[in-house]
Design a protein that fits this description.
The protein is α+β, with helices and mostly antiparallel strands and 647 residues long. It contains 20 helices and 21 strands. The termini are far apart.
C-alpha cells in the first residue's frame, strides 16, 4: 500500500496539471541577476563585477548546437516533443519511485525546472509539483522552446560561483560559451545535476565520468556519429580557469575601483545606494571606460624601471589624460592593489592628495599674467629671505633662490622659491588659489602664501588635469573615466557628454606652456625631455623631501607623476622632482608617443601683458581636433642647465 502513494501522486500530475489554475495564468519570467562587465577603451575586458551570483546572460543564438544537444540529451531527451510536461518521463519516474518507495524522481522536464528556478519557491510537495506542472504548460504556450532553453541555461548553477552557461564557460575554460568544444559542452551539461561534486577544477575524474555519460546519451539519441563519439571520449580534460582561478586580479585595479565608486555615488543610477549596488552587480551592464591598457602597462613599467624595489622604494602614482577630451588613459594608484592590508587599495592618484611642492607655481604664474603682469617683472631671488606680516607674528622664512634677481620666466624655469614667494604676495593668495581651482584642482585649498611652495594638498589626477588646461590653450575639460554604459538589453543607460570651459586666456596659456618647455629643456626638469618632441613640465619637491613631483605634457597627453610614501612623515633624502619623478615621466611618455605624430605647441605669443578676466560660461561641445603638425623648430632658450634649488 505504501508503494501506491508515490505512484498515484505522480500519475495525478498528468490528469490534474491541465486543469489546475494558479493565480498567474500567463507566467511572467523575472529578470535574473547577471554580472556587469567593465571594458577598456580598446574593447578588451577589464573585469566582471558580480555580487552573490556570477552570471552573464547570453542569447540562445550564442549557444552552440552541441551544447543544446548535450543538455537535452542528459536532462530531457523528449524536450522538443512535449508541451512542458512529459507523460512518458512521468511513467519512467513512477517505475523508479515504486522501486525506491518514495518520490525519488519527479520526471521534471527542462521547462518544469525553469519554472522551479525562476517562478517557484515552494518545498517539494504534491501541491508544489502540481503548480510547477501547470506553470510549465502555460510557459510553453507563451514562450518558444528556444526561449525556455535560454532561460534555463542562463539561470542554473554550474558550481564555483558560476550561474548560467556563460559564467560557467569562463570559469572553467576561460572562453565564451559560443567557443566551447563538444567535450567542454558535455562537461557543462554533466555539471547540471552535480555542480559541486563534479566541477572539473576540483574533481577532474568525476567531470570526465559525467562528460562520458552525456556523450553516451548523445550517441544513443544519434546526435553524434560513431567517429565523433569515439574521438571525444579520449580527449583529455582541458580546463583553463582564469588566472588566478578566483578571478580577482585584473588590469588597472585602482582605476576599476574608482569607476565602481563613481557609479555607486551617482544618483543617476538609482535613488539609493542599495539600488545602485543592485544595478551595478546584478544588472548585466557593459561599462566602457577610457583606460588604455597599453598606456596603463607602460605607466606601470616606467615605475618599475626607475623604482623597481617594492619593499624599499617609495610608492609611485601616475595619471595620464588627454587635454582636449579629458579622457583618463592611465592611472597608477599604487604599487600593488592586491597586497595585504586595506592601505594597498587606497588610490594614491586621488584621495586627499599630498603637497605639490613647486609644481604649484605655474598656477600662481597664471594668476599673475591674468592680472596683466609682464614677463620681465623681476623679483629678488636670494637663497634665504623673510617676510614679516604683523608685529609679534613669526616671519615667513623661505629658502631656495639663485641669487640676484629673476624675472617671471627665469624664476619659473629655475624654480626660485624666494622670488615666487614675493610674487605670491603681489598676486594675492586668494587669487592664486582661485586660479588653481579654475584650472582643475578640486581638493580644498587654503588661501595662504605658502600654497605657492606646495603647502596645500593636490592629487595626481587634479595636477594632470590642471596642466592639461595649459596644453588645451586655457580651456578646462573635466577628467573623464567612463565613455558609455549599456544595459543588458543593448540600450544605452548613460553616455558621457563633453563639457568644457575657458578659464584662461589662450595667449597666457601658451606663454606658460613655452616657459614650461624651457623648464624641461634647460631647467629643473631636463630628465623628462623626449628627443624630437616638445615637452612642457614642472618639477615639485615637498618640504623635507616627503613628496616629489613631475607634471608635464605634450599636445597629446598630460601626465602627473608623484613619488612618496603613504606615511606622510617618511622622508626621501635626495629625492627631487627632477630625479625619479622626471625619469618616470620620461620612461612612460617616450614609448607612449612612439606611434603618435609629432605636434608642436602653438607659437609663443608676442605679448601677455593685457589682463584678461577668467570666463565662467560653460559650453557643451565635442573636443576640438588636435593642431596640425608643424616642422620642428629650434628652441627659444639655449645654454647650460640651471641649478635645481627647489627645497
Amino acid at each position: 500500500m505504501r508503494r501506491l502513494v508515490p505512484t498515484l501522486s505522480i500519475v495525478a500530475l498528468v490528469a490534474v496539471a491541465c486543469s489546475y489554475t494558479p493565480i498567474t495564468i500567463a507566467p511572467e519570467v523575472p529578470d535574473t541577476a547577471q554580472s556587469s562587465s567593465m571594458y577598456a577603451s580598446d574593447g578588451s575586458l577589464l573585469t566582471v563585477l558580480h555580487g552573490e551570483e556570477n552570471r552573464v546572460n547570453v542569447r540562445f543564438e550564442q549557444m552552440p548546437d552541441h551544447l543544446i544537444d548535450a543538455v537535452v540529451a542528459i536532462e530531457d531527451e523528449r524536450f522538443w516533443l512535449h508541451q512542458g510536461v512529459d507523460p512518458i518521463g512521468l511513467v519512467r519516474a513512477v517505475r523508479r519511485n515504486v522501486t525506491e518507495g518514495g518520490i525519488a524522481e519527479g520526471g521534471s522536464t527542462i521547462t518544469q525546472q525553469t519554472v522551479k528556478n525562476l517562478l517557484l519557491e515552494r518545498e517539494r510537495s504534491l501541491g508544489g509539483k502540481l503548480e510547477e506542472a501547470s506553470l510549465a504548460l502555460q510557459l510553453e504556450r507563451t514562450h518558444s522552446k528556444e526561449r525556455v532553453l535560454e532561460l534555463y541555461l542562463n539561470s542554473i548553477y554550474f558550481g564555483k560561483g558560476a550561474y548560467g552557461v556563460e559564467a560557467a564557460s569562463r570559469t572553467y575554460f576561460n572562453k565564451s560559451v559560443s567557443d566551447i568544444t563538444l567535450s567542454e559542452a558535455a562537461v557543462l551539461a554533466g555539471l547540471i545535476k552535480f555542480p559541486n561534486a563534479a566541477n572539473p577544477i576540483d574533481y577532474a575524474d568525476r567531470a570526465i565520468d559525467r562528460r562520458d555519460i552525456v556523450l553516451d546519451a548523445m550517441y544513443g539519441l544519434e546526435m553524434i556519429d560513431t567517429e565523433t563519439y569515439e574521438a571525444v571520449l579520449v580527449e583529455p580534460l582541458d580546463v583553463r580557469p582564469p588566472i588566478p582561478a578566483s578571478f580577482d586580479r585584473y588590469p588597472a585595479p585602482h582605476f576599476v575601483e574608482e569607476v565602481t565608486q563613481w557609479f555607486l555615488r551617482n544618483p543617476e543610477f538609482g535613488e539609493t545606494r542599495a539600488d545602485r549596488i543592485q544595478l551595478l552587480f546584478g544588472g548585466g551592464l557593459r561599462i566602457h571606460t577610457t583606460i588604455d591598457p597599453v598606456l596603463q602597462a607602460q605607466a606601470e613599467s616606467a615605475r618599475d624601471q626607475i623604482l623597481p624595489d617594492g619593499s624599499t622604494d617609495p610608492e609611485v602614482s601616475v595619471v595620464a589624460l588627454e587635454p582636449r577630451s579629458g579622457k583618463v588613459r592611465a592611472m597608477v594608484g599604487g604599487r600593488d592593489f592586491w597586497a595585504e592590508g586595506r592601505s594597498a587599495r587606497y588610490n594614491l592618484a586621488m584621495g586627499n592628495g599630498r603637497g605639490g611642492g613647486s609644481s604649484y607655481k605655474p598656477f600662481v604664474l597664471a594668476a599673475a599674467l591674468s592680472q596683466g603682469m609682464p614677463l620681465d617683472r623681476s623679483y629678488p631671488a636670494p637663497n634665504r629671505t623673510e617676510f614679516n606680516f604683523a608685529p609679534g607674528q613669526d616671519p615667513w622664512v623661505v629658502t631656495g633662490g639663485g641669487g640676484g634677481s629673476s624675472d617671471l620666466v627665469r624664476m619659473t624655469v629655475s624654480s626660485h622659491n624666494t622670488a615666487y614667494a614675493a610674487l605670491m604676495l603681489d598676486v594675492g593668495p586668494s587669487n592664486a588659489v582661485a586660479m588653481a581651482r579654475d584650472l582643475g584642482i578640486t581638493t580644498p585649498q587654503n588661501p595662504v602664501p605658502a600654497a605657492v611652495l606646495g603647502s596645500e594638498n593636490v592629487t595626481p589626477l587634479d595636477m594632470a588635469n590642471a596642466y592639461a588646461t595649459f596644453a588645451n590653450a586655457g580651456i578646462h575639460v573635466p577628467p573623464v573615466m567612463v565613455d558609455q554604459i549599456v544595459r543588458a538589453d543593448g540600450t544605452i543607460l548613460w553616455e558621457h557628454s563633453h563639457t568644457q570651459r575657458r578659464v584662461l586666456d589662450a595667449d597666457i596659456a601658451d606663454t606658460i606652456t613655452h616657459i614650461l618647455v624651457d623648464a624641461t629643456e634647460v631647467g629643473t626638469g631636463t630628465r623628462a625631455r623626449i628627443p624630437g618632441r616638445p615637452v612642457a613640465g614642472k618639477t615639485g619637491t615637498g618640504t623635507g623631501f616627503k613628496d616629489a613631483w613631475f607634471v608635464g605634457y605634450t599636445p597629446q597627453l598630460a601626465t602627473a607623476v608623484w613619488v612618496g610614501y603613504p606615511d606622510e612623515e617618511t622622508e626621501m633624502p635626495g629625492m627631487f622632482g627632477g630625479t625619479a619623478p622626471a625619469q618616470i615621466f620620461h620612461a612612460f611618455m617616450a614609448p607612449a608617443h612612439e606611434e603618435l605624430p609629432v605636434f608642436e605647441f602653438r607659437p609663443m605669443p608676442t605679448t601677455t601683458t593685457v589682463p584678461v578676466p577668467r570666463a565662467v560660461t560653460e559650453t557643451t561641445a565635442p573636443p576640438p581636433p588636435p593642431p596640425p603638425p608643424t616642422a620642428p623648430g629650434e628652441e627659444d632658450v639655449q645654454g647650460g642647465e640651471f641649478q635645481e634649488v627647489e627645497p
